[in-house]
What we know:
By secondary structure, the protein is mainly β. The protein has six helices and 20 strands. It has two domains: about 5-220, Jelly Rolls; about 230-315, Jelly Rolls (Sandwich). It has helices at about 20-25, 60-65, 105-110, 140-150, 150-155, 215-220; strands at about 5-10, 10-20, 35-40, 50, 85-90, 95-100, 120-125, 130-135, 155-160, 165-170, 175, 180-190, 195, 230-235, 240-245, 250-265, 270-285, 285-290, 295-300, 305-315. The strands form four sheets. Strands 1, 4, 14, 15, 16, 17, 18, 19 and 20 form a nine-stranded antiparallel beta sheet that branches. A six-stranded antiparallel beta sheet has the order 2-3-5-12-7-10, with no helix packed on it. The chain has a three-stranded antiparallel beta sheet with strand order 9-8-11. The chain is globular.
Amino acid sequence: MYNEPIFLEPVLQERIWGGNKLHTEFGYETPYSHTGEAWAISAHPNGPSKIKNGPLKGHTLQGAWEEHEVLFNRSEAAGETYPLLVKILDANQNLSVQVHPDDTYAMEKEGVPYGKTECWYVLDAEPGAEIVFGHHARTHEELRQTMANGEWDTLLKRVPVTAGDFVYVPSGTIHAIGAGIMILETQQSSDITYRVYDYDRTDEDGNARKLHLEQAAEVTNVPHEDPKNESIQETIEDLTARKLVEESYFTVYHWDLRGQAVIERKSDFLQVSVIKGEATIQTDDQTFSIEKGTHFIIPHTIKQFSLEGDAEMIVSHP
């Protein structure tokens, strides 16, 4: 039986808007001067995580999903593709304004299994930092006309954020992360993005990045409605577990550990990202050290585990 956590190696991604905080704040070896994303728990072909320990060391997460169903309690209904993707993003500059399709559109138009619903836990935000979240158009005709005219200040809704905020972003929501913000993102395992506006930026060769206004207009929810989301909190010994969202694709929690706690795994498996502090995790007779920037999966073969230390974690499952 596989009785240890599955630790994963993040995949670093270059982005025009990235900076160096993934190195300075999380200690990752960043290969680019503009490193925007760490794909921390990923089976996506554009950035597959490799397993760092145990019998599957060196294997990809997707390989484990396909070949070792027992680790995830994977049924045939779950499909051949690992369902979720966890990232850390460093927005040194504004990200492009964008929107993602739902599953039906993604399958019909792009030939991939998942659209993209996502959510963000704000790790850090400079004073005055804002996100784009939603729009003011009342009809699709108004949306298309305002986009065509480039009336972005009229169209886009901007919302201030601070560290500790949580934002749920269903597919069809126009959105963007603003400069000076770091987030941990939990999302469907999809890399489909329809870019709406990119601040007229150009790459190092002077080329503007491609926009996808027609696809964006087709998939955007009109009118925009802020999703309703209720946070629920429970205490397990010295652990405070706050449920941030529970919806059809994922459930996400913030765990605040201030001592010791024994956890009973109730879902098929758990994804865990340490965002602050350090601790130990014990499974059976093995103890592992974890710290800020550690990412791992508690497989289905582990029914119970204990935590000890002073740390915060974002935890999720399908």
